[in-house]
Amino acid sequence: MTIRKILLNNTPFHCSEIDRGLQFGDGHFTTIRVVQGVPLYVERHLSRLSEANTRLFINHPDFDSLHERILNACNGIKNGVCKVIVTRGYGGRGYGFSDNTEANEYIQVSDAPAKLNSVSLGVAELNLARQPKLAGLKTLNRLEQVLLTQERSVSAYDDLLVCDSEGNVVEAIQGNVFWYKQGQWYTPELSFSGVQGIMRQLIIDEGMLTPLHIGHYSLKELADVEQIILSNSVRGAVTVTQFNGKVLDKSKLPAVLEQLIL
């Protein structure tokens, strides 16, 4: 197929093709915190990218040297965020793609956000779709999060807890969620929707919160919650001081998670 013309804001766009990441959200990404020039937990981020390439059938021929490019991009950055985006590349107009289509790779480094010690958390009206084939991946299809962020912006809360279409708790808009009640920690199973966060997996792998139960939980399971923790790779771990209008008395971050504060 030959593309005859592309206009960008009604001006001729001098490119023979448009990236499939822009056309279809055909790609994935990871976001890495950078401290004193060091991309934190970079091996875990590389593993995430590799898994996504495999599950999405993306041909990323230069992946083996990506680590070096990330290190170079982060060099000299005192306190920042490195975002690595991988798209399927160029592929014409239709949804189909060739096995030899080569990925495009984007590395963006920006300033770190302001430190956040605690948040208030509400409950979102919008639900996440369930799709096991994409569950856990951080794909470029983030329209749900865009709409959720708009919903949050007109709410009284810093973040919103999001359920899936079956009413099961999944995550917050910008992080995974852990909660504590009656001597037990809980976090949602993410086999149908949601993102398998780097910090979430680190907390699980290192046994930082015990005993920890992973399963499918409805919103009513948080009715008598005592403590809630949100985690992501940019901010580390953040405690929730208020949930759905209820002040949480047990809101101090567990000592074992203090090492994750960024």
Question: Could you explain how this protein is built, in words?
Answer:
- With 262 residues, this protein is an alpha+beta fold.
- It has two domains: 7-111, D-amino Acid Aminotransferase, Chain A, domain 1; 118-260, D-amino Acid Aminotransferase, Chain A, domain 2 (Alpha-Beta Barrel).
- 18% of the residues lie in helices and 30% in strands.
- It has five helices and 15 strands.
- Strands 7, 8, 9, 10, 11, 12, 13, 14 and 15 form a nine-stranded mixed beta sheet that branches. Strands 4-3-5-6 form a four-stranded antiparallel beta sheet.
- A hairpin with a 2-residue loop joins β1 and β2.
- The N and C termini lie far apart (48 Å).
What is the compact description of this entry?
This protein has 262 residues and is α+β, with helices and mostly antiparallel strands. The chain contains 5 helices and 15 strands. The radius of gyration is 20 Å and the shape is globular.
Fill in the CATH topology of the largest domain: D-amino Acid Aminotransferase, Chain A, domain 2
Structural class: alpha+beta
- Total domain units: 2
| Percent helix range | 10-25%
Determine the mean pLDDT: 93
The level-1 CATH class of the largest domain? Alpha Beta
Low-confidence spans: none
Please summarize the sheet with the most strands: 9 strands, mixed
The CATH homologous superfamily of the largest domain: D-amino Acid Aminotransferase, subunit A, domain 2
The gyration radius over C-alpha positions equals 20 Å
**Proportion of strand residues:** 25-35%
Shape: globular
Count of DSSP E strands?
Answer: 15
Distance between the termini: 48 Å
Number of helices: 5
Order of helices and strands: EEHEEHHEEEHEEEEHEEEE
- The CATH architecture of the largest domain can be given as Alpha-Beta Barrel
InterPro entries: Aminodeoxychorismate_lyase_IV, Aminotrans_IV, Aminotransferase-like, BCAT-like_C, BCAT-like_N, Class-IV_PLP-Dep_Aminotrnsfr
EC number: 4.1.3.38
Protein name: Aminodeoxychorismate lyase
Pfam families: Aminotran_4 (PF01063)
